[in-house]
Amino acid sequence: IINQNAIPGKIITNTYLINEQTTLPIISIATDPENFWNIDTGMYVMGNNAQVDFPYFNANFWHDWERPVHLEYFDESHSRQINMNAGVKIFGGWSRGFPQKSLSVYARSKYGDGSIKHKLFTEKPIEKFESIVLRNSGNDNNSTMFRDGLLTGLLKGVDIDRQAYEPAILFINGSYWGIHNIREKVNEHFINNNHPWVSTDQLDLLEFSGTAIHGDPLHYAAMISFIENNSLAISANYDYLKSQIDINEYLNYQVAQIYFNNKDWPGNNIKFWRPKTSIGKWRWILYDTDFGFGTWENNAYTYNTLEYALDANGPEWPNPPWSTYLFRSMISNNSFKVDLVNRFADLLNTNFKEEIVAQQLDSIKQKIEGEIPSHNNKWNAFDINGWNYQVQIMRNFALNRPGYLRTYINNEFDLYGLSTLDFDVTIEGAGLIQVNSLLLTNFPWEGIYFQGNPIDVKVIAKPGYKFVRWLGIDEGNNPILYIDPPQNANIYAQFELDPNQDGTVVINEINYKSHIEFDSGDWIELYNSSTEMIDISGWQFKDSDNAHAYIIPENTIMASDAYLVICKDTIAFKSHYPLRTAYLGQLDFGLSSAGEAISLYDADENLIDFVEYGNTNPWPTVGGTGSTLELINPYLDNALASSWHGSGEYSTPCALNNSYQYTDDDYGVEEHHFAIQDLSIHPNPFNKELYIDLFLDTERKVSVKVFNINGTLIKNISSGASQTGKVSLSWDGTNNSGKRVAPGVYIIEASSQDWLYTQKAIMLN
User: Fold this and answer.
1) Who is most buried in 331, 468, 469, 738, counting CB within 10 A?
2) Closest CA to 294 of 385, 405, 397
3) pTM: predicted TM-score of the whole model, two decimal places
4) pLDDT tens digits for range 516-525
């Protein structure tokens, strides 16, 4: 019985999928059928005004209509992770004309939740999205259904802005709708998700020749004007351009597009952005690459896309003169040309290496091939044999492309042929070798380079060893080389034991992704475990990209048993750790949430410490939880995942690590003093309860009190029993009378006979 006089209740929507055998995630959309199929208002149908020819301009699906839906997401185990209302639009360009269409999903407060809260992609740590795309694979729709996902995924671990990819099955109103690729939507929120330190209201996002999507085009227009009036062949002008463009990322972007033979570029599918700061640099976004890897031509691997990308008089589509202008201008500078050729070589030797690409292709193929028959039954796009044929076209491209591309590079830049170089070390584990942008950690290693184009080679001795000399080339004992690659050589770095290198400064704590409600920015903590002061002026901290280097300022001296934090954002760090004073910044690069190699060099470029951390087993999973990676003891080998723990709900910059373990018996540490007095509070701001932790180096009595901002005593938390080590207390927001105090700022004071610490705490409602 329905009571006609009652207030309507909340609509509850649930999807029940019976006997679904797919191993892919499932997305279910429920909506009023009129929203999709009505001839006048349905956004998925032709309507009354569609043109007769593909892609049927003026059809309903070409309108910018948004319709309300209920969205559910079931992970690979078919456990429901998302259950929300949202808005949906038809997405894409000419691919709207295909029977299966792409959809943009928007989380808006008017529907309910203002964000999609789930970690949708295994390859990125992002856990909240304003919008996503359920893509029909674009122009690959009737081909393989994973071309764009494969291509952008080949750049994993490379400094480039790219969309994540996850294939899924879509149901609409209970009907099977086939394979859709979950992708990040490229907008200002995409940039903020991938660069959390960049605010959505403080960036410029442009497309094509400089049309603003978000922000304004003024900075870019001024940069292009500078190029038009100043030759980049002159070093000073090119140096200025490097202050405007992230050259390293631009190189990766150009090399990728040319390798893919993406012929729907550069006059189309081009977006670029910069933070609106005094040091913000332009970066390019890799997306919509499904014209690459032979979509239309079986032998597309033979095409000279380098020449095409440098064409000064290309057609309006796809490479008009404006679209190649920046690249052509930069290529006039010899330094850029050398770096470009070497970046081609580096990526062709690693991410784009034939067998590596084939393995990645097979991995995705195996993931979705069980779904191909059902997808074909729905859309009649291809049978399993036709699908395998299209996949083989991509495999042929992967296996043949590097050889053709190396020939085009050699001819374009008048080089002298190829050189196969084998690098090795004489003592396993004694050191690393850096070749251009690649840090080689596993030996022997082979790469193909271009004669006539100098390469950078550097040997890096690990603590406890020293570099002696090169073997196989006549370069003596110089650890840093800038050489024309010799024709086919076996190059060895000879090491020997060095008892004087004890690695006394170590990377002791790593914060690569803060909690969203306690975002102190990326940072690492150094610890001087020696008994001596160490001058670290001129030392360098680097990530896995050699172009990213932070140089420690002059007159930076670390005392014995001292900590020093190097942070991405000093303002964010200081706001969350107001009592920590031993910090430096600003890093102009962040730490990868997916894991990467980070290293510390002295002023002579000797390796002091090196950590290649991860975010999956056996490494502790800490990103975004408020926890950091922390060494359990600075004398342990920090190259081993077993030497690291998660810090727990809070971190300890400039202080003894939460997971610290004494190892006197096991590791021969005798009478070494590690602990310092410190006070840590969390979470801050807090609602119900504030946790207070003290770290005591010796047994002592401690008093802990709470004051308001005017200095009035609010609560005595501890009058101080004699204790040592870590002491944990809490404050529930009440005063000495047991009454809850008003929201606001309070001062937590911890004191003993010879020291006093205070920290501000913010209590919310």
Assistant:
1) 331
2) 397
3) 0.74
4) 778 889 999 9
